[in-house]
Amino acid sequence: MRLVVSGLLFAALIACSASPSPPAGSGGTTPVPSASPSQATSTGRGELRFTEIATLDKPVAFAVREGDERLYIAEQTGRLRTSDGDTVIDLSAEVSGGNEQGLLGVAFHPSGRWLYLDWTDARGHTHVTEWAYDGTRATGRRDVLFQEQPYPNHNGGQLAFGPDGYLYIALGDGGSGGDPQGNGQDLGTLLGKILRIDPRPDGQGGRPYTVPKDNPFVGKEGAKTEIWAYGLRNPWRFGFDRDTGDLWIGDVGQNAWEEVDYQPAGSEGGENYGWNAREGKERHSGEKSGEMVDPVITYPLHEGGNCSVIAGYVYRGRKIPWLQGQFLYGDFCAGWIKAAPVDELDKATEVGKVEQLSSFGEGHDGELYALSLQGPLYRIESG
Fold first, then answer.
1. Is the peptide bond before 276 cis (omega within 30 degrees of 0)?
2. 6-21: per-residue pLDDT in tens?
3. Mind telling me which InterPro entries this protein's record contains (predicted)?
4. Which of 62, 219, 222, 292 is the one with CA 20 to 30 A from 322?
5. Residue range(s) defining the domain that contains residue 110
6. How many domains in the chain?
7. Looking at residue 238, which CATH number applies to its domain?
């Protein structure tokens, strides 16, 4: 399935080809988000306003840096830019220009001394690359992680440092339709996973990164030790709750269901979110490799123009009191954005629209932003 937008055949977030899934249920345990003492439990709602603060070239990812008030935005076409118009890094001559390729993710080390980009090269393969950064110049480029991609789609691309200080990396299942290589359930590949690594270990001895000793598959024969969670199709965007440390993952569906997955803070990792044994909560194909965890949010593809889930953040800012403690997410094609109280996710309500919503961002102060593939960067405000 493809969609023509803004003159670009763009499918980075879109489900692709394959025959419809057989409708059959599957078991699993769903972790239930619990409210922290700071969370508002009111179900009051309002409208949001989206104020354009910058215009970029196909913005797809967002980050902030310690001690720096500027916002950093990754353009799919290859540049990392700031909200005041500066170009920090330009990979436009190196990135592949396919539908689901290019510069896809950005994150800063908690110290602010290093920045990381996730991008696909001219052959379509994934790199996670580090630069030393002093706020003015990006120097000392170093490849941290490389992953061959068998197909041009489902590259994931999200990067984020977790509350534990480790770098989390999203990789899709490698592409095509239906996960023909079975990567989602295969612990012997990094594809279809969220990884957890330390890219700046002390005394790394020339190694590009180290694997935390408490990663769930350390010591498991045949398993890649970098894996933190698996059973994912295309985890395009994920984010941590800045108050609780909970992890929210938007996983783009195949033919039937979009889903949001959830990992509570304190998890020891190793969750299996089901793909390709199932899509959403329904049987798809393939064989599961362990007990599967149910998504906490699902919604049907195609209905109302739905095509690709965009996961956001739990709102922890102060400027929109009624939104406190609610999780924001949206859909790329339909454009709607919904807010759901974290302890009542079935009570999500639409709070606004952004055409070609590609990502959300979170500022130092907990205020949220929305990116449109059409170019605008929006600050989310009370309506």
1. yes
2. 333 344 444 443 333 3
3. 6-blade_b-propeller_TolB-like, Glc/Sorbosone_DH, Quinoprot_gluc/sorb_DH_b-prop
4. 62
5. 4-19+42-382
6. 1
7. 2.120.10.30
